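Why does residue order matter? Because the sequence determines the fold. Keep that principle in mind as you read this record.
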Amino acid sequence: MTGQEPGHGPDTPQGGQEPLHGGPAAGPAGTAGLRTMTRADIMSRAKRWVNAKVPYSMSGYWADGYRQDCSGYVSMAWHLPGNEWTGSLAEFGTRIERKDLRPGDILLFHNEGDPSQGSHVTIFGGWADDAQTGYVAYEQAKPHTRRQVTPMAYWSNSDRYEAYRYKALKGEAPADGQLAGGGGTVGGGTVGGGTVFPGPGHFGPGEDNSYIALLGRLLAEYGFDVGGAAGPGSRWGEAHRQAIQAFQRAQGWTGAEADGLPGPGTWSLLVNGTGSKAAPTPAVRPRAAASGRTAAPPAGPGHAAGSAPTGPRAAVSAAGAPARSATAPAAAAAPHRAAPPATAPPVGARATARATARATATTTARATAGAGAGAGAGAGATDTAPPAFPGHRHFRPGSSSGHVDTLRGQLVKRGFDRHYSPRPGPRWGDADRRSTEAFQRAQGWRGAAADGYPGPETWRRLFS
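Structure:
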């Protein structure tokens, strides 16, 4: 099936519902079993076929098993379990107004009277003008997948197209103000009936979604402030972890139960209004930070005994973040470094080169640190703030910039350099991802929090 620009030839018959080519049979329609997808996930998949210039075919199948027509293309972008057609795609979406369209949504026309005449679907990639008369359409049409500015909603049958949003969109608040998968409103500041826990994957370094914004507001209502005057925002940060940990400790939880990450129990208490609020505490005189390091001591399983503070439990500050005990060892606040190498000498040319590079980097770092300490002893110098996180876009496959070089330098300095032999090229690659993942795992992070791509918290700890 293909939508046609005027003068581009006759319409093409379309394929129907069928499983992925070479894969298992498609499951039943509906959201059960659907993969949760972010808008970025959908658009990333849509761009794959555009870059590959996949030829149009109602009977051909691309390497991923999806049919090479317009509905097969949308099935691929939405990562559906099978190949759908224009008559079934609406079952996987929620009808929305055109004015609410955002990247990853679709514009669908199914001609029920004669599906082979004009039926078509496109992926909305963003508005092309302020008047919203045109948009960037991603579509599968002859001769191959394309991305181009298209009049709203299409060249023909424009008034018959309907807008839909993927049902299993991750971390998205629909137009009516309700978070997907729950019953709590977002805009009014109340959570009537409770919102179902969305899962641990929504919370952690690098995550940015509506659930984090809701979590921040709920914590603030309990007296555990996250964002101060600026508000909590929707991007996960260290302030979220600290405020959640303070809330968990206020419930009498310790150890792994107070790890600063929300689980079903934490979420239920916050949403249903049954948790204990922050207790007022006397002002605590702040102590000087050591070397500008602000990373909290790790808690929970997976850490060596003795790595947690040995003093009394951290107090909850008026701002809602747990303050470290004055008796906690200063070393606990520092980000974890790579474990020291084995005592056996390196064998082979690569190992020797790697050992030499590590020794050089360590010597340089110690000399720099010694010089800074000497200057500070004479003049009371203060720590230099780490450079601001430059953004996720600099650390994706094929990216090349000075920020990649800066990241590599810090990883080598901290001993995470074993994947840098032989020396990597100028672009971000698998050696960078694996080195970053090793650093993240050394912080005690797992799963999506240790995906090998630096976020603001990874960056801060590297430079702390």
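The longest helix spans residues 349-379.
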